[in-house]
Design a protein that fits this description.
With 252 residues, the chain is α+β, with helices and mostly antiparallel strands. It is built from 13 helices and 4 strands.
Length: 252
């Protein structure tokens, strides 16, 4: 009997874990098993393999809704991120792994965040140089430099184009940066910019809503886009979003 929590869930925070749900009486399982095992050997270090006999561990089979076997699930950071059923040939499994496995940049980023809960820009910049195609690293780095160096955000996010993953998140960060670098003699805009740069969102957002209530095109529309970007970046469950997003929608 395996310790599923330790060998799959916990370990998946360090490395993707492929779980092969099988049974001794299952013919296709006998075909798939050696192929999966050989791939695990060939790609050692990229992911690990755990085999679960559904006859011995029926509770696990029920928990993960195993209706037919073989069933292969890929776990990462505690969750199932992809799966397939049936005895696929080697080449199809290789193609599936290519798309299902987290990219190396994301793995490196997660490893860094596991070691350092609050990273500095200097921690992310070398990662971006190593994995320039990783949008996850670019998004996190942009969030770290946004308030202190907004003028650098567009350069960091330049590879995240329309139609690619994380484009919406990148757009929200660009909109915030565009407002922060806006040059204006308007006292309201300057005051809001200063509060944003200090990270005083709780103080700034009521002022933003008040100003936009008088002129929702303030700052050539950059203020409203920045406000929307902030709420979308914070997420729907953030206390500030819950407190002020509806008010913003009303004035816009």
């Amino acid at each position: 009997m395996i310790d599923f929590q330790k060998e799959v869930i916990d370990k998946s925070f360090q490395l993707p874990v492929l779980v092969d749900f099988w049974a001794p009486w299952c013919g296709p399982c006998k075909v798939l098993g050696p192929v999966i095992e050989q791939l695990a050997h060939d790609q050692e270090g990229q992911w690990s393999l755990v085999k679960v006999n559904t006859e011995d561990q029926q509770e696990l089979a029920t928990r993960y809704n195993i209706r037919s076997i073989p069933n292969v699930k890929l776990f990462y950071r505690g969750d199932v991120i992809d799966e397939f059923t049936g005895a696929l040939p080697r080449q199809m499994i290789l193609e599936w792994l290519k798309h299902a496995l987290p990219n190396p940049g994301l793995l490196a980023l997660d490893q860094l965040l596991a070691e350092k809960e609050v990273p500095e820009p200097g921690d992310l910049e070398p990662l971006m140089d190593r994995f320039p195609e990783s949008p996850e690293i670019r998004i996190v780095l942009s969030q770290l430099i946004l308030w202190d160096a907004p003028e650098k955000v567009h350069t960091v996010l330049e590879t995240i184009k329309m139609g690619t993953p994380f484009y919406d998140k990148a757009t929200y960060l660009r909109d915030i940066a565009n407002f922060l670098v806006l040059t204006s003699d308007d006292e309201d805009l300057t005051r809001i910019q200063n509060l944003f740069r200090k990270g005083s969102l709780e103080e700034a957002l009521p002022i933003v809503i008040e100003v936009l209530g008088k002129d929702n095109k303030k700052g050539d529309g950059k203020l409203s886009k920045a406000a929307i970007g902030i709420f979308n970046t914070l997420g729907t469950q953030h206390p500030l979003t819950k407190a002020y997003r509806r008010q913003l929608d009303m004035v816009l």
